[in-house]
Amino acid sequence: MLSARLVYLSPNAPSEELRLSPVLAETVARWCAAKEATAVVIRHQSPYVLLGPKDRRLPNLSHAVQWLESQGYPVFMRIGGGSAVLLDGDCLSFAVSRPCRDLTAWQDNFLTMSRGVIRALHALGIPAEFGRAAGSYCEGPYDLVVHGRKIAGIAQAIRGGFALVSGMLLVRQDPERTTHLLQEFYHRAGSPLRLEASAVTALHRFPGLAGVTLAQVEQALIDGFAADYALSPQPLSSAEKALAQQLLTERRLLA
Fold first, then answer.
1. pTM (predicted TM-score)
2. Which of the listed residues 70, 109, 209, 226 has the most CB atoms within 10 Å of its CB?
């Protein structure tokens, strides 16, 4: 079994560590490239909005970013594909990174590096599979869907000697509220994009999971990834925290 570093960011982590969450996966992926190693990241976060490359071209982006900030959401750019998503304490983020310089490996990366998440959902009784949920925010072909509705978003970046497959699992986040917020962002940014809240769901809405906790989902994810990797917990080093702080400044969008 392949060994992998496990980096875990607790919901009770110090605020100065939680604020690094938007760039934690990228920070660890750079370590993977340098060490020729594999890593799994499972993290919580304080609320923020993450934008994709296409969002940079929105005609009124600065105005829309200013509005998000007024609602209490700092805004960051992702290094992979995709578009706007809201991450908060009602979802759980995950990432897998490994050395990779082959740009043709993207499909295999999605299929193999996301298996732990699918396995976790199946263990919770959710028959998730790869698919596209038409009308969902940050719609993509390798999201995880259940009966046509998105329950986890997944994106990928291959650069700097690493492949990074990362995403978020919607545990208790309200699809209607989130979709409304992101729709308003796109409206203010001058985009004609129209989002459908009915294309998104969350774990706690499924029968038998109304009381599901983040801790239960977190353990299911760890168990899911542990079927593929021999996980070895290893926190961020001081040098990695410094790099994450630098990346946080670089990825932050200011109105």
1. 0.95
2. 109
